[in-house]
Specification:
The termini are far apart. The chain has one domain: Nuclear Transport Factor 2, Chain: A (Roll). The protein is built from 4 helices and 4 strands, in the order ααααββββ. By secondary structure, the chain is α+β, with helices and mostly antiparallel strands.
């Protein structure tokens, strides 16, 4: 094996070891709250309104009748978006800002519709029992 090839393989091996040993950077509170909001809306628009509902702060405490009504309203909303805008094709995170007065993270998402129109929405997210939930 030539000296140049040996050196190249050593550098490559050291680089791989460095990458494997380096942990991923810690997410900021804004990034964590945004991930919850975005994944919840993606679940809603991909046919899983129960996952969207379970990401709400009050989901555990609501009576079954109310849960059923909300799930039906969510399904109706998705159907309406399908009819009016050819559905939601993707959801992008725009920005997040902490409201320290209300202790709420305001997450801004952009809904990209199938008809090429867009809409920015604001999702209020709060920390509860060490996890972010939609308000």
């Amino acid at each position: 094996m030539s000296h140049g090839l040996t050196r190249f393989l050593m550098v490559l091996l050291m680089g791989l070891c460095f990458c494997a040993c380096t942990s991923a950077p810690e997410l900021t509170p804004e990034e964590r709250a945004a991930a919850v909001a975005k994944s919840s809306y993606e679940a809603l628009y991909s046919g899983h309104p129960e996952l969207f509902l379970d990401a709400r702060l009050d989901a555990d405490a609501m009576p079954q009748d109310y849960r059923d009504q909300l799930l039906e309203a969510y399904r109706l909303h998705v159907k309406q978006m399908d009819e009016q805008h050819k559905g939601v094709s993707s959801i992008n995170f725009s920005r997040a800002m902490m409201d320290t007065t209300l202790n709420v993270m305001q997450v801004f998402l952009v809904l990209n519709y199938g008809d090429a129109s867009k809409e920015e929405i604001v999702v209020s997210v709060v920390m509860h029992d060490d996890k972010w939930l939609m308000k």
